[in-house]
Write a structure and sequence with these properties.
292 residues
Amino acid sequence: MKAALRTYHARMRRVLDHIDRHLDRDLDLESVSGIAAFSKFHFHRQFVATFGLSVHRYVQLARMKRASYRLAYSDAQSVTDIAMDAGYEAPDAFARAFRQRFGQSPSSFRKSPDWETWLAAFGPLENARNKLMQTTFTAMDVTIRDVPPTPVAIFEHRGDPATLGATIQRFIAWRKAAGLHPKTNPTFNVWRSERCPEQPADYSVDLCVGTDQPIEPNSEVKAGEIPGGRCAVLRVVGNTHNLEPAALYLYRDWLPASGEEARDFPIYCQRLSFFPEVPEHETVVELFLPLK
């Protein structure tokens, strides 16, 4: 029974992977059901029963999430091009759907996103993905690595995680202006609080970019360093916007069994690939737990 259930879940995960990889294509019920080798006559109900929303709704949300990322974090595409990539034949249809979902026009969102409304809108999509897309980690996934010290420019976020998107926007704009491209200068996040602290105002994370060039301090950017030393390193592929399960595995399971001791520096990650440049299930992060 357990083996059959694992096979069923694997087939459903294959469907989500296919959707993520082919958001630019026609994702009708017949073609999607064929990916999982399920009957198209029953697949709709199976999908809804598993994920809590229809295939059509899932595809809509996935396309809209990619579109919203492109609007907020990249100015390389016009609103018209983003609308077409999201499956809309005309920009005005995209604008109506976008406004209905987020309470803002695409142009307004690009200038000043309402991130709290954005987070709420994608709750059903995240719930669906989290049901079957979680990774189970083992000690074989963890390596111990001697890490060199890395000079970084630090962009601090302090306060409600619902406003993190706005800080990320400013961080991206600053590093673009400074010529610090992700392909040449690594991207790090250093967590100085829990992901969901009791008080949202206590949330704290540093957005960092590796650079040895002089940093002109201002109200948001300062120079710093990620210290070198031994680290337990866990590579995470997919669902990298929520690294709490991976961090919990390192702290709760791996660390006590390893005989190692944590060093006095927060857990941090290096982001190796980014959504929407790659599908969400292909994003890659390395999580570092500093050791003595």
